[in-house]
Description:
- The chain folds into 2 domains: 1-96, Thiol Ester Dehydrase, Chain A, CATH 3.10.129; 98-148, no CATH class.
- The protein has 6 helices and 2 strands.
- It has helices at residues 19-27, 32-35, 37-42, 52-67, 106-112, 119-144; strands spanning 9-13, 90-94.
Amino acid sequence: xxxxxxxxxxxxxxxxxxxxxxxxxxSGDFNPIHVDEEYxxxxxxxxxxLHGLWTMAQVARAHTDAAGGPDKLxxxxxxxxxxxxxxxxxxxxxxASISYITPFEPSCLLVYGPGKYRFRDFLIAGAPLSLLLLxxxxxxxxxxxxxx
Length: 148
């Protein structure tokens, strides 16, 4: 599958009530906030919450599905900025972009709100990336596409 600029890919998963118990057994993470409803509410949580790594696995699954298999995923970095709850749908949305400097591009808008980013964050990270891309293209452009 080829992902073009702005083409979104979406994976939706609704975790069943036993996913945290199964994941605890598979991962060895038996933290009671994931498997014990009473304990989770006693420490101020709304109930049992999903393992962050289970959520990350859904992100990896969406990437590998889009790329054509697990052998295509070389690395994965995530930030945990919230918590997932049983019965609530998890939606992983992917889109490609080379617009690093503004959030007003479809793939950047996907993360702007949920990631709690500010416009300044795009300038801080995007300006150096955009300048680097410009320099690389200016240097490599004539070599790759020489003018006759």
